[in-house]
Amino acid sequence: MEARGYEIRSVLRALDVLIVLGERGQADLSTVARAAGLHPTTTLRMLESLRSRGFVRQRRGRYEVGPRAFEVGSAFLSRFSIAEEAQALVAELATVVNESASFGILDEGQVLYLAIAHGERELGIQSTPGGRHPAHCTALGKALLAHLGWEEVERILRAHPPVRLTPATLIEPAEIRRELQRIARRGYAVDAEERLAGVVCVAAPIRDHSGEVVAALSVSGPRLRLGRSRVQAVAAQVVEVAEKASAILGAP
Fold first, then answer.
1. Superfamily of domain 80-248
2. What is the mean pLDDT of the chain?
3. What burial class does residue 184 get, using C-beta atoms within 10 Å of its C-beta: 0-12 exposed, 13-18 middle, 19+ buried?
């Protein structure tokens, strides 16, 4: 990873090592080095430095994330107290709509999924808690982007250029801007087969006590069940549960 500005290369490398362990669970030195793109000697120094602070631990010759990393991660979740309610919220939404429901936040141009639940008619969506998808072509992502200033959206688009995943994917900044303006006025976003052909998704934003959008809830289903005639009804249900979530955060 290229260091820029105030970034410190050694810190970035150590974080890359920690990310590798977070993704793999356990790994030996050579595996971590290859995955992080670092020399084994450098990787060993990073691992031992992280181990000395409790972010990594070693068992039977393999490394894994340590308890200190959990403590720091918990500090992040404490900022989003709604995360504690996320699974209950998506479970409620999935039951009401009888489709797959997701809860996510925006993280550097991508949607980070924190909770997912399925209705009886499971779609089998390709997302799991901790998974990510591009923001520009997902209902969750568009619901979140729609409440940022356009300059911030442009920065995200430059850092993460939109990729056309289906014929319906919006990739031109002008068309993305128009779409986000429509979403902001309407109060919910629709992904009409923009990320995955045959799949439609509807999402609504969640606001905190200051009125800022901090997360979003969505419902996903196959086009044959979420056609135009049903999208508005589903959107109303998604908005209702999102407003309930906002109330938990003390939104005005």
1. GAF domain (3.30.450.40)
2. 86
3. middle
DSSP 55: S
Separation of alpha carbons 31 and 27, rounded Å: 6
What is the C-alpha separation between 177 and 168, in angstroms, rounded? 16
Residues 119 and 93 sit within 8 Å (Cβ to Cβ): no
189-192/132-134 β-pairing? unpaired
Classify 9-74 by CATH class.
Answer: mainly alpha
Q: How confident is the model at residue 121, as a pLDDT?
A: 64
**How would you class 14 by CB atoms within 10 Å of its CB: exposed for 0-12, middle for 13-18, buried for 19 or more?**
buried
Predicted confidence (pLDDT) per residue in 9-38, tens digit: 888 888 999 989 988 888 999 999 999 999
The string of pLDDT tens digits covering residues 157-177 is: 998 999 999 999 999 999 999
Main-chain dihedrals φ then ψ at residue 182, nearest 5 degrees: -65, -40
The ranges assigned to domains in the chain are 9-74, 80-248
**Which pairing describes strands 110-117 and 132-134: parallel, antiparallel, or unpaired?**
antiparallel
Helices (H), the chain: 9-24, 29-36, 40-52, 67-79, 82-97, 139-145, 150-159, 173-186, 228-248
User: Sign of the C-alpha dihedral, residues 83, 85, 91, 95?
Assistant: negative
